[in-house]
Hints:
Order of helices and strands: EEHHHEHEHHEHEHHEHEH
Structural class: alpha/beta
Largest sheet: 6 strands, parallel
Number of domains: 2
Shape: globular
CATH superfamily of the largest domain: Alpha/Beta hydrolase fold, catalytic domain
CATH architecture of the largest domain: 3-Layer(aba) Sandwich
Strand order of the largest sheet: 4-3-5-6-7-8
Number of helices: 11
Distance between the termini: 43 Å
CATH topology of the largest domain: Rossmann fold
Strand content: 15-25%
CATH class of the largest domain: Alpha Beta
Helix content: 40-55%
Amino acid sequence: xxxxxxxxxxxxVTPARVADELRKLSAQRQDGxxxxxxxxxxxxxxxxxxxxxxxxxxxxxxxxxxxxxFEQAAxxxxxxxxxxxxxxxxxxxxxxxxxxxxxxxxxxLAFDLRGHGxxxxxxxxPLVIDTPEGVTPEAFGTAFVASAGKVGxxxxxxxxxxxxxxxxxxxxxxxxxxxxxxASVGGSGVLLAxxxxxxxxxxxxLGAAGAPAIDPDGPTRIRAAVExxxxxxxxxxxxxxxxxxxxxxxAWSQGLAPARTRIVPGAAHAMAIYFxxxxxxxxxxxxxLLLR
Length: 292
């Protein structure tokens, strides 16, 4: 794609073009044309290039392009879990859950949210979240709000959609058996993204919060999204979560049969509650995927 230039800048690219490039890379890796290191190099270059150009298509067009990838992958490999982490963390914060998912035979794709970890490349140079100047809730809130505008938290649901699209295009992935997991603002992101993704078998969040940083009407949009969701979903939080995780669990699950909820004692947030509900969460995910 790097040959396409327009006045010294990269031209916009269509969703179909992106899908074709992903299929080509995947096929070349599968048939041995590309060694693993060359595949990784080309994929990294492609992703870097995509950050510098606009994908010329609506959300509906992107979904229409992704759907055949899901169908093509159906029944041909491992189920896939895509994980969106909390602020201010990285994909590594999912390590305990990733290890447990792999033990179940579930492929995992934990990615760095925009402005976090390795996802800091922009056309104007590094773009990194702000971190709290101090340990008070006020310092955390100030940095979170500043980061939301600075790196564009409003695009997190779409970033999740794109991560899923890349994941199902990889070898040995069953695009009809997908899980979405999110923590804190990543939890709000997966709840917004889930209803529009084919192949979703289950969604789970730990301390889902920060929805207004994605959209001022985020909490209402999430309620509407889970009402449309055709898969079971699991919402968990601590009772005294400082970001109203427990309140979100109640508001987003009330009266919905597919919802399963868990409130644990204390005030820990997001992945910090994982070991309080580990067995229950893993059983939910196993059941959603119909694993023995």
